[in-house]
Amino acid sequence: MSTSYYHFRPPVTSVKVEEGPAHDRVTVFENKANAGTLTVSKGLGKTFVSFFADEVDDPVAPIRTHFGGKGRGCVVTIQELRLHPDTYLVDEYGQVFTVAQITAMDGRGA
Questions:
Q1: SS (H, E, C) the chain
Q2: What pLDDT score does 58 carry?
Q3: Which of 10, 11, 14, 66 could form a disulfide with 88 if both were Cys (CB 3.0 to 4.6 A apart)?
Q4: In terms of pLDDT, which residue wins out, 27 or 60?
């Protein structure tokens, strides 16, 4: 099983999901500034995050991960040079991570 991580569609630089008791709040950041917050049905926050992922114009995911087996654990493959550690990426499941968080997964689960 592998996971692909994508950039956000410009000008979006990040998206934050807060899951609440009745609704999810999806805050969108444009050029690192809060552009607004959507209030959506509970459990749909990550679905909305995926709308901002640049999977179409980003056919080769900047980072991919997969399980390398016992003794190796998570394998992180960086496919785009010069990714800043603070750059936000979104996976195909709508979860948001920084490049640093993803690269720190390397070797976990061994």
A1: CEEEEECECCCEEEEEEEECCCEEEEEEEECCEEEEEEEEECCCHHHHHHCCECCCCCCCCCEEEEECCCCCCEEEEECCCCCCCCCEEEECCCCEEEHHHHHCCCCCCC
A2: 66
A3: 14
A4: 27
- Res 103 pLDDT > 90: yes
11 cis-preceded (ω within 30 degrees of 0): yes
**C-alpha of 44 from chain center:** 16
**87's tokens:** 């750059």
State how far the Cα of 85 lies from the Cα of 75, in Å rounded to an integer.
17
Cβ-proximal residues to 71 (8 Å cutoff; 6+ apart), any chain: 110
Among the listed residues 89, 93, 83, 99, the one whose alpha carbon sits nearest the alpha carbon of residue 13: 89
Does the pLDDT at position 37 exceed 80? Answer: yes
